[in-house]
Amino acid sequence: DIQLTQSPSFLSASVGDRVSITCRASQDIRSYLGWYQQKPGEAPKLLIYAASTLQTDVPSRFSGGGSGTEFTLTISSLQPEDFATYYCQQLNSYPLTFGGGTKVEIK
Amino acid sequence: QMQLQESGPGLLKPSETLSLTCSVSGGSINSIIYYWGWIRQSPGKGLEWIGSVFHDRSTYDNPSLKSRVSLSIDTVGNQFSLRLSSVSAPDTAIYYCARHSLFHNYFDFWGQGIPVAVSS
Fold it and tell me: Where do the H-state alpha helices sit in chain B?
């Protein structure tokens, strides 16, 4: 199975900050990576797929990059509604796997 | 807008079989470009993909569940189902159903999730 390691596990930031989250894969997954946002009590929401393609209606302050084994999710200017937990998912092969999550909290 | 809704029991005893159904509205489950999947989330193991089923009843499932998973689809009733046999405490989780893109392997529409506890 492909393992995904996210860092940091926890991030404290202020409104307006630029934040980046890293996801490392245990083997080459080309650009087959997605990112999700999850708020307490809700299901995950797809933000990005194919490493950098923004899902419909996702704000442009979210961006994704990387390929191979290292990927990043960047929020250019953190908004109050962005405080949540973020997960990466490899889309390359079965079994599909997720990273352990990064919780973004208000400083 | 597509909506998915899980239903099933919230409490099981060890060794019982979990049966969940996902009802889909706002679109047809009889699609050639989407699978229909199950994902669970527990504090100990995070998000875990369980398996996905296609309209032709073909399936993919996670080998980590050691063949305890059975997936089915009802294209007439626009719903799909999960059966997980021989449950034990580690199967305690929130279970989500979701639409699974055939080409990109992402999950773009999710149900709200149903909490399932396994306890004697």
Answer: none
Pair B16, B68: CB distance under 8 Å: no
The amino acid present at B2, given as its one-letter code, is M
Query: What is the CB neighbour count within 10 angstroms for residue B51?
Result: 23
Beta-carbon contacts of residue A21 (< 8 Å; ≥ 6 apart): A6, A7, A8, A11, A72, A73, A74, A86, A88, A102, A104
Tens digits of per-residue pLDDT, B61-91? 999 998 999 999 999 999 999 999 999 999 9
**Tokens read off for B100:** 């699974």
Q: Tokens at residue B28, please?
A: 């047809």
| Identity of the residue in A43, A46, A94 whose CB atom sits nearest the CB atom of B106 | A46
Which pLDDT tens digit goes with each residue over A15-44? Answer: 999 999 999 999 999 999 999 999 999 999
Q: Which residues of A touch B106 (CB under 8 A)?
A: 34, 46, 49, 89, 91
